[in-house]
Amino acid sequence: MLEVMPTMSQTLTVNAPLTAADGELLTVKLARERRNKQLKAVALVAPLAIFLLLTFLVPIFMLLGRSVDNPEVVTHLPATSKLIASWDRRALPSEDVFQAMARDLTAAKEDKSVPEVAKRLNMDISGFRSLIQKTARKMPLELAAGESMRDRFIQIDERWGDPDHWHVIAKNAKSWTPYYLYSSLDLRETKAGTPELAPEEERAFISIFGRTLWISFWVTVFCLLLGYPLAYWLANLPARKSNLLMILVLLPFWTSVLVRVASWIVLLQREGLINSALMNLGIIGEPLQLAFNRVGVYIAMVHILLPFVILPAYSVMKSIPPTYMRAAISLGDHPFAAFWKIYFPQTVAGVAAGALLVFIMCIGYYITPALLGSPEEQMVSYYVAFYTNVTINWGMAAALGSLLLIATMTLYAVYSKLVGANKLSLG
Amino acid sequence: MNKNTPRLLALSVAVALAAPAMAKDITVISFGGANKDAQAVAYYQTFEKASGNKITAGDYNGEMAKIKAMVDAKKVSWDVVEVESPELLRGCEEGLFEKINWSKVGNKADFVTPAVSECGVGIFVWSTAMAYNADKIKVAPQGWADFWDVKKFPGKRGLRKGAKYTLEFALQADGVKPADVYKLLATKAGVDRAFKKLDQLKPNIQWWEAGAQPPQFLASGDVVMSSAYNGRIDTAQKEGKNLKVVWTGSVYDVDSWAIPKGSPKLKEAMDFIKHASQPENQAVYSNKIAYGPTNLKAIQKVDPKSATNLPTWPANLKNALALDVNFWVEHGEELEERFNAWAAR
Amino acid sequence: MLPTYASPIERVWFWSFRIFCVMILIFLVSPLLVIVPLSFSADTFLLYPIKSFSLRWYEEFFGNGVWLTSLKNSFIVAPAATLLATTLGTLAAVGLTSSDFPGKSVLMSVLISPMVVPVVIVGVGAYLFFAPLGLSNSYFALILVHTALGVPFVVITVSATLRGFNANLIRASASLGANPVTTYRRIVLPLIAPGVISGALFAFATSFDEVVVTLFLAGPEQTTLPRQMFGGIKENISPAIAAAATVLILFSIALLLTLEWLRGRAEKTRTSAA
């Protein structure tokens, strides 16, 4: 607390520097006060900041790191990795490399790390797994006099005589790789190290990213089309009535997403309420496919995200005095024109912010498409989970996750600029 | 009061605190649904009664990620897990599972061959077969070629969302003999052929992921035919649904018990596996759900009415295909990824 | 209201607009209404029409170990996460609003970011981070991550309340001889309490409804209610899910009413204090 407020007479008359009661320079004291206050503020924020750093930021940064991490070959085939760097990448590697490989595989067999290497190499050439396993099982090799390790390897399996296999080892003999990120963009690395488009039957992710944005775009549009009019109506109703109806918006908002998904299945499934109602009314003869396809995903996602448009739009609209519209109309504007020229522009910023938030949440969606969609509705998140749990290909999961995160964060930065994260409010 | 009292007290407190760990409860994870219900009756409850150890039963969908994470972190909380053969083999190679001490389980010769392996003990023989709703289809389909014939049998088809089994079925639908399926699938041309065949059916496919789904889809009329685990169809039949199994072209394999490496209750886990391998208990299981016992001695104990519905019944085995575990270990990842790319299009 | 002199076109517009809005409201509420009756169905499928009624699915819900355990787990994880999130978030919000310091707006954005980062990324990241530490399949990691997800809501609501807070009240209190602790207890706390509580409710709801992170971090022992429902919807749709849903809907009504009551109270205190 300031001890002395400068009085009016002091500020008016004194040219000498202001001092506090204890004789200290006021500016100095003020600066110190401010610094203290800042320190106190930082000290209050620090626990949360540190907590989030440890439980949230560090895990995510480590995940990002995994998208280029490539430790298997370097760690478990160290000697080979070193030697193969100087290989000319045309003919077969030299005898030294084969010797190193034999030593590395022997050591890997000892510490049981063969499967890790085998799995990594199998990603580039399928069948590499068994080649490595089979060869490792024969370790250590005793060479007859005059026999070369190279011949011995080729004798075990002729694929060792194929430079392509060695090329894969050479490519993975460094501790980072663009492999996962390339794969996430339907690219692959050529022998020269440049990216090229993967063969058509293997391409998937560009279209999955495209689909993610496309679904998110339409969900946002539908949310706007339904949310804006409803918010307008609610904002212009008498307070008692609008508060009551607002509960109908807030109740689904507070209800578990899983409850709502289950309900939509009840409504939309083949023998669900909507189909049986339509059939009883004679509108359709055959049940419509409403669930487990795009329609179902749209309906459920719009339902879940609609409040996120309604609530900010409502609070913006509440703050617009109705007199503006009345003034415009009384000055001769048609009500629609008045709405378009006077009312609408005042709501754009708030509503756009809500829409952007919906879009941001949409692109990371997982549960709804997973439960209500077919494979053609699965978005990027689904594949992140798929690679994590099912194929245990954490590099791929990390690469897809990184791209998704970059997209989200870019939009979030725009959002923060537009709204200011500190002005975010929750209805 | 003697002076030892405080120490005794401390000791008893320590014992009391340690008690939960000493009760030797084990966690058994299996594939859920009807399978788990049958296991509960045949194995869990009887084991609890026989040994006094409680079982925490959980279920999962066969994801190895959780097991790998536990083993890597050396903090294993699952003691016995049901796994499919390719995962068992791969996990065994990668050191995810404990080696089985067969002398503690029983005589290897008492078991069907695929049930005996380094890291696992076979639980039951299952089959993924074609099933159809006999209320909706009057003429019985004969094999996978009929499954693909949407003119003769209009309506949606259910298939498991994954490359495994699906590619085998597609090739058989294309006229490949069961014996040649894996030879062909090992070549790029064979895989292309399978996907091309799948392309034909794609607009009519409704995918399933969990074993409980196909009987539901069939019962609700969402699909007219589906690939399905035969045991789930059998359970639905017992509930009065008119579902039928077509054994021609079915793919069979065993599921096994395995112990994640580093389980702190190795002994109890082995006891449980031994208990679950007893012919009496396996027969109870097979009466409850139509999966074949792995213990040869259990086969005579199965109720004759149930026996004809088991995948191990000779007539059912005749035109069936054994899952090639090594093939799926080798090509699984690549094919699953290609399948995913294909399904997502 | 429609003026009496409105033209026919205006009338049509007015009424069709109203009908449109009412339909949207029906769209919003109908799923909640549809699922409740099914929980009383005696059938084994989630299908209408309901032929006979029974309480068997509630017996299943409250009698079956799986559902009850998951409910219990939810009531372990959510309150713990709420407590942590509310404490950390309130402190941070007080710090953020009390003074300006360099990098404040960036920091604010970071503190809010758990709200926008796709949950799958949070889940996978946490899983790959905590699993090597032996903390996957533990309540501990689950609570920590749920806390992180709930924190933004606390920061936002408490900051919003604090911004509306009139600092002169503190000065007035001090000038009337109250020491800082008394001031905090008697003046500040009652005024920001509604913000804190509604932030806590948001944090609670976030954790209580969270399924994706739980999917990655929880083992069968930590299965929460949403996780159990997720598995149920995916694998075995039975009316037990409808029973669980009904319980959750009742719960969300309670949450909503508390929140509305708080909002009313906050407005009253603020206007009377101003």
UniProtKB/TrEMBL annotation, chain B:
Segment forming the signal sequence: 1-23
Entries under CDD domains matching the protein: PBP2_polyamine_RpCGA009
Pfam families assigned: SBP_bac_8
TM stretches of this protein: none
The entry's keywords: Signal
SUPFAM superfamilies in the cross-refs: Periplasmic binding protein-like II
Protein name: ABC transporter substrate-binding protein
UniProtKB/TrEMBL annotation, chain C:
The keyword Cell membrane is assigned to this record: yes
Protein name from the UniProt record: ABC transporter permease
Organism per entry: Vogesella aquatica
ABC transmembrane type-1 domain boundaries: 71-259
Protein location: Cell inner membrane; Cell membrane
Keywords: Cell inner membrane, Cell membrane, Membrane, Transmembrane, Transmembrane helix, Transport
Family: Belongs to the binding-protein-dependent transport system permease family.
Gene3D superfamilies: MetI-like
Membrane topology note: Multi-pass membrane protein
Record field: transmembrane: 12-40, 75-94, 106-133, 139-166, 187-208, 237-262
RNA-binding in keyword set: no
